[in-house]
Structures are given as C-alpha cells and as structure tokens.
C-alpha cells in the first residue's frame, strides 16, 4: 500500500512543487494568505476533497475532507502558509502546506481500501495569532484520531517539545509635562516601563531554567523634552509547561502593578496575541514517523533527538488529539529558520525534494495507523496519560 502512496506522490510531484513555489514567491502575512489558501483549496478540491471555508470567521482558514468507503479513524494533516514580515517564507511554510496536502491526497488510496477520513486543516497565522488556538478551543480537533505535520529544517529531528507562551501587553498612562520647565507636574509612563523591565530582570533569577521572558518597548514617548504620558511594553512569557507559565505570568503581573504604583501611573494589561500551550508529542506516533523516514532511505544517525524550538500553536492541538511535529531536512547547509539564507535555500530543488520525502513519511505514518487498530489504541492510551500528566 505504501508503494502506491509513494508512487502517487512521485507522479504528482510537479504539481506540489509548483504549488509550493507559487506560495513561496507570493508571501502573505497571517490572516492575509488569500493566494495561498485559494491555491491549496483549489488543488484539494480537484482531488475530491470537500471544502469548508471560512472556518470560525477566519477567511483564509479551511477544512478539506475526504471520506473513504467505510468507517475508520480520522487523520488530520495540518497546513501552515503564512510568511514573516520583510523576510517572506523564511520559516518554510510554503513547504509545510504542500507537504501536508501531498500526503493527504496520496493517502486516499489507503482510506479507500481500509476506511477512514482524511482532513486537511488550513491554519493561518502560525507566526502570530495562530488559528489553531481558536480552532482547538472550538472543538474542531476533538473527533480527530491523530494529527500530523512536519516542519522543514536543516536536519532530521524527531518530534520534541515546545514552550507554552503568553503574549502580554502593558500600557501605562501618566501625565505629560514640560521636562525642563515643570517636570514635577508630570507622571512619567516611560519610567513605569523601565521599572517593569528592571523588576523582570530581578525576577529571572528566581525562575526555573526553562522559563523565558523577553520584551520590547513599542511606545516610549514623543519628544525628549516632554514627560511621556503613555508608554507600552510587550512581552512573551514562556516555560516548558502551561501551569508554570501561568505561575510566571502572575509574577510578571505583580511586577507590572508595582511599577504603576511606584510611578503613580494607571496600568492596562492585555493579551496582544493568542496563548500557546506546550507541544505534547505522542511518542508512539513519532516512532512510526521515524521508522518511515528510515524506510525511505534516511540513515538512523541522521535523525536527531527532538529539541525545543520555541512556541507553536500546534501545542493547543496536541491537548485535543495525539499529535506530532517532526523536522525534515530540506537544506544541506546549517542555516537557522527565520533567516534570509534559509528562505532562499528553501526555494531550491533540494528543498522541494525534501518536501516530497516528508510527504511520503507523513502519508506512510498515517497508513500504518489506519491499518492497525492495535497501534491506534496504543497511541490513544499514551495520549490520555500524557494529557492527564500535564494537568497535574
């Protein structure tokens, strides 16, 4: 059956390469991916998938569904296709979406024989306000048996960990005054922001080693001779678990309140992006993906242990169904994601071939699970244990 899957991907290779190249050459920011989502939906519909668009009032989100001839598990392939400001597709999302779509279409033959349902989730804005967060919260993954996606990289890497994250904005409101003639009449909002940074710097030494707090000042005043009446800071607060991230957020909030109290400012706190939960990798599912890479000719010594690569909105999905997020080698040079070098190499023939290999591994993994109820039961049992563990 995998022979048919792989030959289907090889036969259709040029259409997936053309799709990926088009999206790579036409980068669009999150929730503005009109061209990318339209092309993806057009391709999937041409291959017999039924489309739902928009999803949750998200105009560039979609769910494409293909049902086999008899009941069976539901497998989800997740597609990302937003680009980075100024850098374009320096995170390789043009490869991610084509990889997922190619895997889904190739898996049709297995679903026709074994039964089941294939869903392709078009998930906008992973880099900012990731659509997987509201989609997961709305229960759109609750009836999914397992979810798969793979990320392009300069190495093969097993599905690992990510950090839970909250994105907090602190606005301080003070009172303007002439900084030379009557500074005593002012209430300095920028001082409050600077005190916040100092307090957080002191807080760090009391935090666990996996905690991360980093921020910027987005508004600090208009002129040096005017006491700033308004100042804004934005922070990402992360850790390896949702409970500890929540605990750290409370400490940061106290720092922010203290800065307002010391300066006499008024404080407004808000979330400027969605909160992401940590990724819960399903190790049984991850092992199947690794085995498929080996079957496709990747050497065992080439596949690294999974690492922490920041935060993913896929973490929220992984609390709803068994999920993996491995990395697939698409370039031979050691360039990191979110760089111009990676962006340029991710448009090469080498990158497209890596994308196709990733699609075969994803589809092969899904095929393994569809063919074995025992495998699926083990995957689900691990999922229940893992999610329960994160809540304790």
TrEMBL record:
GO terms for biological process: folic acid catabolic process. InterPro entries: Amidohydrolase (IPR017439), Bact_exopeptidase_dim_dom (IPR036264), Peptidase_M20 (IPR002933), Peptidase_M20/M20A_hydrolases (IPR052030), Peptidase_M20_dimer (IPR011650), Xaa-Arg_dipeptidase (IPR017144). GO terms for molecular function: dipeptidase activity; para-aminobenzoyl-glutamate hydrolase activity. Gene3D superfamilies: 3.30.70.360, Zn peptidases. One of its GO terms (cellular component) is cytoplasm. Residues 173-247 form the Peptidase M20 dimerisation domain. It holds the Pfam family M20_dimer. PANTHER family: PEPTIDASE M20, XAA-ARG DIPEPTIDASE. Belongs to the peptidase M20A family. This is Peptidase M20 domain-containing protein 2. It comes from Paenibacillus piri. The lineage of its organism: Bacteria, Bacillati, Bacillota, Bacilli, Bacillales.
């Amino acid at each position: 059956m995998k022979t048919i899957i792989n030959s289907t991907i090889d036969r259709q290779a040029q259409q997936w390469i053309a799709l990926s190249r088009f999206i790579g050459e036409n980068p669009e920011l999150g929730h503005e991916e009109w061209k990318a989502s339209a092309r993806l939906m057009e391709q999937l519909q041409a291959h017999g998938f039924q489309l739902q668009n928009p999803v949750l009032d998200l105009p560039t989100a979609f769910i494409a569904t293909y049902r086999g001839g008899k009941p069976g598990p539901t497998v989800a392939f997740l597609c990302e296709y937003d680009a980075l400001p100024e850098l374009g597709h320096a995170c390789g999302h043009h490869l991610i979406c084509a990889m997922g779509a190619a895997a889904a279409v190739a898996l049709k033959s297995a679903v026709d024989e074994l039964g089941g349902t294939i869903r392709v989730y078009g998930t906008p804005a992973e880099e900012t306000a990731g659509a997987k967060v509201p989609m997961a919260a709305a229960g759109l993954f609750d009836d999914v048996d397992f979810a798969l996606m793979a990320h392009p990289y300069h190495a093969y890497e097993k599905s690992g960990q990510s950090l839970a994250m909250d994105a907090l904005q602190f606005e301080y409101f003070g009172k303007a005054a002439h900084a030379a003639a009557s500074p005593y009449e002012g209430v300095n909002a920028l001082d409050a922001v600077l005190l916040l940074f100092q307090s957080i710097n002191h807080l760090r030494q009391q935090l666990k080693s996996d905690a991360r707090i980093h921020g910027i000042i987005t508004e600090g005043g208009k002129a040096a001779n005017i006491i700033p009446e308004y100042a804004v800071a934005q922070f990402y607060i992360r850790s390896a678990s949702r409970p500890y991230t929540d605990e750290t957020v409370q400490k940061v909030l106290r720092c922010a309140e203290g800065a307002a109290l010391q300066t006499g400012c008024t404080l407004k706190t808000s979330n400027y992006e969605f909160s992401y939960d940590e990724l819960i990798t399903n190790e049984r599912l991850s092992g199947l993906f690794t085995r498929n890479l080996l079957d496709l000719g990747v050497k065992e010594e080439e596949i690294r242990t999974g690492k922490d690569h920041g935060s993913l909105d896929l973490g929220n999905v992984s609390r709803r169904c068994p999920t993996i997020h491995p990395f697939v080698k698409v370039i031979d040079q050691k360039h990191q994601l979110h760089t111009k070098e990676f962006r340029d190499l991710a448009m090469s023939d080498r990158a497209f071939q890596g994308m196709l290999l990733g699609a075969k591994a994803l589809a092969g993994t899904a095929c393994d699970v569809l063919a074995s109820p025992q495998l699926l039961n083990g995957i689900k049992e691990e999922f229940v244990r893992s999610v329960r563990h994160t809540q304790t």
